[in-house]
Design a protein that fits this description.
The chain is an alpha/beta fold. The protein has helices at 18-21, 27-31, 33-36, 107-117, 135-155, 171-181, 206-215, 238-259, 262-265, 281-294, 305-310, 323-334, 355-360, 367-381; strands spanning 8-14, 40-42, 58-60, 121-126, 160-167, 187-193, 218-222, 270-274, 314-317, 339-340.
């Protein structure tokens, strides 16, 4: 709690290393660790940009898809990349680096940093090691991740929540994971692990939505640096990639999910987007509605896009740089029940340890609205009591 306000942070991250996950791996995956060793990469830079000291932990890197974080960077206005220039990490936007153990993984350190910032509950967006050519490896790493989450979140059941990762490459396994963990207190939603060019509205995914609907979970979209739409066409520039990638990926997801009538087919699902901006939401809501009638190619019997996006089942986490004026504009057009607080902790875009204080300092918003933004809306989104 901060200055009398309860705080639910709807956008935080964790990426447990191979070393952290190994005790949670099943026997089949542990037996394959020597074979998988060639995919291990040392983690030398923390997620906020800290230069780490050895000994280094490791991540598996299976995928080779692009993203704004890959390839040689070109400065805008120049013909090509500068010779021998190394790509630099993003600039940390906060005042104090989080601990290297905030994400991998010392649960008591994490709780201490929540207390420092004034956060009561965190939604942990989990990173998973997927993309191996053998889908059983993906299933094994996802299963280990869920066992890890169940362990660490159960130590602070009223403070730590997370998401079930559902692989579109292995729908049967995804459904099993949802049925296994969907009733757990920590499991507040699902996040889809989609292969490149696989649409989220594909009918093969209906068993996933059905299982999530049965469990009353929220479907979460969080944009990432690889595999988003347009990743092949960024003119080799990280500025263009980062600026455009997250909003566009969320736009595509919303269009497909709502245009396929999935909120109608599965009435217990909420839909949330994280770290994708939010000032564009009213524009896109109006544009989608026009395109439904002008262009078509959507499901039959749709209600209006405004009904879907303002009817109490769609939510969006704010990004702090868009500020209070944008919060007010979106809320005036869509209602004060849509937006929710998100910090991006412990990543470089976080304002740690001041993210909550930034919102509390938005004088254009009254206290009742701040309570909805900081607690009521994320709690409703993720069915938190």
């Amino acid at each position: 709690m901060r200055n009398g306000f309860k705080v639910f942070d709807a956008d935080t991250h964790l990426q447990p290393s191979v070393e952290t996950l190994t005790p949670y791996m099943d026997a089949a995956l542990r037996a394959r660790q020597p074979e998988l060793a060639r995919f291990m990469r040392e983690v030398k830079i923390g997620r906020a940009g800290q230069v780490l000291d050895p000994p280094f932990n490791h991540w598996y890197r299976f995928e080779t898809s692009g993203g704004w974080g890959g390839g040689k960077p070109r400065h805008l206005g120049e013909a090509g990349p500068r010779e021998q220039e190394e790509r630099h990490f993003q600039n940390f936007m906060g005042r104090k680096y989080p601990s290297r153990y905030s994400e991998d993984w010392d649960v008591d350190t994490r709780i201490g940093e929540m207390d420092e910032e004034g956060v009561d509950v965190e939604l942990l967006v989990p990173g998973s090691f997927t993309g191996h050519e053998d889908v059983s490896v993906d299933a094994g790493t996802i299963g280990a991740l869920h066992r890890f989450l169940d362990d660490v979140c159960s130590r602070y059941p009223d403070r730590l929540t997370s998401l079930i990762t559902a692989s579109a490459r292995d729908v049967e396994s995804a459904v099993t994971e949802i049925r296994t963990w969907g009733g757990s207190r920590w499991a507040r939603g699902i996040i889809l692990d989609l292969p490149i060019d696989f649409p989220i509205d594909h009918p093969d995914l209906h068993p996933v939505w059905r299982a999530a609907d049965d469990a009353g979970l929220t479907v979460v979209h969080h944009s990432f640096a690889s595999g988003y739409p347009g990743y092949r066409d960024l003119w080799d520039n990280p500025f263009v990639g980062r600026t455009a990638s997250h909003p566009w990926a969320a736009m595509r997801m919303i269009s497909a999910f709502l245009g396929a009538s999935l909120l109608d087919k599965y009435p217990n699902l909420n839909l949330a987007i994280l770290e994708s901006g939010f000032g564009w939401l009213p524009f896109y809501m109006k544009r989608m509605e026009d395109q439904v009638h002008y262009m078509g190619y959507v499901a039959d019997g749709l209600r209006t896009m405004e009904e879907y996006m303002t009817g109490g089942r769609f939510f969006a986490a704010v990004v702090l740089h868009e500020g209070p004026e944008m919060v007010r504009m979106v809320s005036e057009m869509m209602g004060d029940h849509v937006l929710m607080f998100g910090s991006d902790f412990p990543h470089a875009e976080s304002r740690f340890p001041d993210s909550v204080d930034v919102v509390l300092g938005w004088g254009q918003l009254d206290d009742d609205f701040k309570r909805r933004l900081l607690w009521d809306n994320p709690a409703a989104c993720f069915h938190w009591d």
